[in-house]
Specification:
Elements: H1 3-22, H2 27-34, H3 38-45, H4 54-64, H5 68-71, E1 84-86, E2 89-95, E3 110-116, E4 126-130, E5 145-150, E6 159-164, E7 170-176, E8 180-184, E9 193-196, E10 201-211
Parallel strand pairs: 2-4
Antiparallel strand pairs: 1-2, 2-3, 4-5, 5-10, 6-7, 6-10, 7-8, 8-9
């Protein structure tokens, strides 16, 4: 075995051990979960993972409540999409886009993390989203970042993240009328969009903060 593989296998073993102990799970309990004896789990944690099957790793990742990619030794958060706290700063997942039909906080949509200094009661319910396009100019420009609180409704006049039909999510001012909801762009070039009861749409969050990109360029 070459040195690079040996180092990686040892790292996987260390992380398997760390994840199991974090949840106070015994070797026997872990083995029962994937159908092996506890000595096999111990060997994995000692770095003997050359023949370790990915499906088993995924089962243990779910059992331990950690990110599979982290177990594999990659430089990602230990807990998938878990907010991080460092020096009283909360770091939230930064998404490139939000699409309909799948978990919009899925790892493949994560492009980084954004930290903010706020005393929040529910930091796990926040994420950040990079602005795409010019529909919200002159307030928000492309590549600006908005901090979003996850919620399924907003008050009329607030800026929300809205999924319409099977499109990607859009950032718009939400105005509520008796028979429809109106999505308004800040850029007057773009007409407002009316969503009646026949239109399939979902509000997934409220914009609570914006970060201006390249402000000094």
């Amino acid at each position: 075995m070459d040195r690079e593989k040996e180092t990686r296998y040892k790292l996987i073993g260390i992380r398997l051990n760390k994840a199991r102990l974090r949840k106070n799970i015994t070797l026997e309990e872990a083995g029962n979960k994937v159908g092996v004896n506890k000595s096999t789990v111990q060997r994995w944690e000692n770095g003997n993972v050359e023949k370790f099957k990915i499906p088993l790793l995924e089962i243990l990742a779910d059992f331990y409540c950690v990110n599979t990619e982290w177990l594999l030794g990659h430089d990602v958060p230990m807990v998938k999409n878990e907010y991080q706290v460092t020096d009283y700063k909360h770091a939230f997942p930064l998404l490139g886009t939000v699409k309909a039909g799948y978990d919009y906080l899925a790892q493949e949509n994560l492009i980084g993390y954004v930290a903010i200094d706020k005393n929040l009661s529910d930091p796990e319910n926040y994420f950040a989203l990079k602005v795409i396009g010019d529909s919200m100019q002159p307030v928000l420009y492309e590549d600006d970042i908005v901090i979003v609180h996850k919620q399924n409704d907003v008050e009329s006049g607030q800026v929300g993240i809205v999924l319409v039909d099977n499109e990607e999510a859009t950032i718009k001012k939400v105005i509520k009328h008796n028979d429809y909801v109106e999505l308004i762009a800040f850029n007057s070039y773009y007409p407002s969009r009316k969503l009646d009861k026949k239109t399939k749409f979902t509000i997934i969050g409220k914009v609570v903060e914006a970060r201006i990109s390249k402000i000094f360029e």
